[in-house]
Amino acid sequence: MRNVVLSILVLLSSAVSAQHDSCVVLTRINLEGNKVTKPSVVYRELLVKIGDTIGESYFNELMKESRENVLNTSAFNFVDFVVEDDPDVPNGKVLTVKMVERWYVWPAPYLRYADRNLMSWFKGGDASRMSYGFNIECRNLWGLLHKLNLTMIFGYNQKYSLTYDVPYLTDKQNFGLEASIGYTRDKEVAYATLEDKVYYYKADEGCPHEAFYAYVKPYFRFGCRNRLSLTVQYDDRLFGDTLVSLNPSLGYDGGSRFRYFTLSAVFKNDFRDDHNYPLDGHYLEIEATKIGTGVFSNEPDVFYGKFTADWYTRIYKRFYWASNITAKLSSNIDVPYFLKKGLGYGNDYVRTLDLYVVDAMNFAVFKNNLKFAILRPLTKNIPSINDERFGKIHLALYANLFFDFARTWNVDVATETTSRLANEWIFGTGAGIDFVTYYDKVLRLEYGFNGLGESGFFIHFVAPI
Fold this sequence. Notes:
This protein has helices at about 1-15, 40-45, 55-70, 120-125, 240-245, 390; strands at about 25-30, 55, 75-85, 90-100, 105-115, 130-140, 145-155, 155-165, 175-185, 190-195, 195-200, 210-220, 225-240, 255-270, 280-290, 300-315, 320-330, 365-380, 390-410, 425-435, 440-450, 455-460. The protein is mostly beta strands. The strands form three sheets. Strands 5-6-7-8-9-12-13-14-15-16-17-18-19-20-21-22 form a 16-stranded antiparallel β-sheet. A four-stranded mixed β-sheet has the order 2-1-4-3. Strands 10-11 form a two-stranded antiparallel ribbon. The two termini are about 35 Å apart.
């Protein structure tokens, strides 16, 4: 199907620009630097093949998009496309793909705070609320982008998990499968939200929450930029009696054990130039999730849909703009507390309101960023390190202004609580600095104000949008 569409586009492009745009013939493709990665992985991401005859301007567009595809496999730190004339063929072109592979095996110590984010942990000021252990991540196993992740976490909150991802199970390289199994034990558990802040119960002995999960996730790639994943997950959660007495709405009917299946479908359309810190392109994600299938008694019964759209563009020289809209809609609001992950979790939050949450099953978030490239992306070589996987680094520095706002609705606020954020418009604005470097590392330092009349300094380690 892709070849048919590409052929039609090539013919149309050639017909329209025949008088103004000469055609080129791709006679050869050379790969350099893929010492581990199999050639088939790189060829999978290219939008051209040997023998293609394409209008020159369209050929250049395909080169740009193909380079982004190869870079976004996360198998390489650097990818360069070099196109040269083929002296043996009139209008012939030779493509050389030059790659610097990453270091693929990361046995790393694990240190994590127990709270929702770094600022919440700072506010608590309790160093004992840390979990520790190790995480072994193996990427690009066998040179085929297989991923293995083994986690062993001890201390405050414990986790033991194993995940394996096989991206290509067919010769056409359009079908993959991810599977995971894990077990967690939490000494401190969130049991209620009061006045827009999460309250925790800490057990003197033992762990008041235990959970086992397992899932399988088949996924399908359509072309290079579209992906559909289907997930079937089993959960078995056990809450201590004290937790249930503190908040009967933690679950259903005062129960303490919940077993249930979750079915989820997620479609992604990803045209970002860089997945980790995009400056150009767009991204669309649509999710439909059903929690509880009627297999077990006392199951949750929740259905929700979620929509995310991002847009990135350069507006003038060193100035860039980014916008995001995320919306979540649920079929009901009578949901067990442990499933109410609304506004304030993950990346669904308003900047400068990091310390607050709204347990909303229905919300919309709008984020906007104006960036100025203080230091445009550049590459540096560290003289003392000969290995390009570590000695060749990427650096960039951006100043940014941001303005976020959000709205929640149909939030069932308890009579004994006073929420300043539920069922209201909220906003936050400020300025910051983003430092971006190799191996997808981002450091954000921000200072801002919100609609509650508060201000503060905030630290994050992912791109804002």
